[in-house]
Amino acid sequence: MRASTSAGFRMGVMGSLSKGWHHFCTITHHKLLVMRHCFRVGLYWQGLIHDLSKYSLTEFRVGVQYYQGNRSPNTAERADIGYSTAWMHHKGRNKHHYEYWIDMKANRDATFEGKPIPTRYVVEMFCDRVAASKVYQGSAYKDDSSLNYFKLEQSSKGEILFHPESKQLLETMLTWLAEDGEKIAFARIKHDIVCVRYTTPSTRKF
Question: Which of 62, 140, 160, 173 has the highest CB neighbour number within 10 Å of its CB?
Answer without folding.
Answer: 173
